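LOG
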Amino acid sequence: FQSFNDIYGTTNNPWDLDRGPGGSSGGSAAALAAGLTGLDAGSDIGGSIRNPAHFCGVYGHKPTWGIVPSQGQAPPGVIAVPDLAVVGPMGRSAEDLQLSLSIVSGADHLNAPGWRLELPPPRMKRLGELKVALLPDHGAAPVEREVADRVQQIGQVLSRAGATVSDTARPDFVSGEGNDTYLRLLLSVTGTAPEDNIDHQTWVGLDNVRTYYRVGWQNFFRDWDVLVCPITATPAFEHDHGQFGTRTLEVNGETVAYFQQLFWAGIATVSYLPSTVFPTGLSKNGLPIGLQVIGAEFDDNTTMEFARLMAEEIGGFQPPPGYAT
C-alpha cells in the first residue's frame, strides 16, 4: 500500500507530499495525477493497481485474470503465469482504460495458436439500465465512515439515473471465510517465510473452494450487473516505513491491523473478477476517494463503461492543486 525502497527512495502523493500514493504501482498513479504521463500500467494481486488509483484520484482497471499476457512484466526467468496476479491499465479517464485494455489484452505466445479473446460488450448503454449492488462496509474490514458514505452517495446517483440499487444483495461468501481463502492463496504466491508455503494438495483444495466462489459470482451476476464497494479502508495515509508486522491504520478513530484492508482487494481477486476504480471526488480533508466497481468474469467492458458513465454524472479526474491537467 506504499511505494518506497532503499534504492529509489520514497514516492510521494501529489495531493499531499506527506502521504503515500499507494502501492505497489504507486509511481504509476502519482505520475498520472501529477501530469508526468497520460497513460501507465500496473500489476495487481492485492490491490496494487486499484489502491494507488484510489489514493491519487485516477482510474485503474484490474482485468479478469488471464486476459492480459504477463510477458515483459514478470521478473527475469519467470515465464509461468502466477495465480491471482494480473497486469492492467491506469489512466486519467475510463476511455483511456478502455483503449489500453483493447491493445494489451489477448492470447499469450503459448495460447495464440488456438485461443482468441472475445470480451462481451458492456451490459448497458446508460446507467439507468443497470441493477447495482452496494457493499459500503463490512465487519471483517471496517472502512472510514466517509468512504462508506461515498458508496451510498453513488447509490443515490444511480437511483436518480433510474438504476435498480440494493445495499443488501451480495453472495453469502463475501465474508471472513472467503477472505481467508484469498489470503492463503495470496501467500502461496507472494510469501517468503516458511510458514507461508503450502503443499500442492492444500493449494488444490483451496482452488476448489475458490471455484465454488467463481460459480457463485456467476450466479449472482445473472441477477445483478455490478457491485460497487471500497477498495481500501481510508483515503491516502501518511508515510509509514516501520517494520512490516508493526504497521497499523486508524479507521474511525480505532487502530486496526495494516493488512486488514486486503479484504477489499480480495473480493475481486480471489475469484478472478474484473474491477475498475473510478474517482468520486475529495474527502473532507481534500484527498481523493475512489471506489471499485466489480463485474462478472470477462465483463471488463461493463465495469470500465460504468466508470465512464459515472464521470458524466459526477465528474472524473481532477488534477491536484498546483499540477497541470
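LOG (cont.) second protein
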Amino acid sequence: GGKIGVLLEVNAETDFVARTDAFQELCNDLAMHIAAAAPEYVTVDEVPADVIEREKKVQIARVMEEGKPEHIAEKIVTGRLSKFYAEIVLLEQPFVKGDNETVGEMLTKAIATIGENIKVRRFARCRPRC
C-alpha cells in the first residue's frame, strides 16, 4: 500500500457550521489535497526564516549564473520565491480539484458560501509503516 493518512484541524466559529455538509466537504477536499500535494506549512508566515534565506541564496546564485543584470535579479528572485511557496505552502498551492485557483482562493469561496469564518490551523500527513 500506497496509503497516506492526514490529520487536519479546521476551525469554525460555531458547532452548527462544523456539522453542515458544506463544511464537511471542505474538510474532505482539504485532506485530499494535503494527501496529494504534500505541503509542509499552512501559510507563508509559518515558513522558517532560515528556509527562506537558503532558498533566496539558491535563487540568487541561479540568477547570477544565468547572467541576468543585477537590477532585475531581485524581481526574478521574488518571482521564484512565489513559485517556491506554491510548492510548500498549503494556502499557496494550486488546488488539486480546482480550475486554476489556489487552496487559499478555494477556502475564501467556501467562507463566502458557508457564511462564517473558517481557518485551517494545522495538519499532519503521514504514511503508515509496513
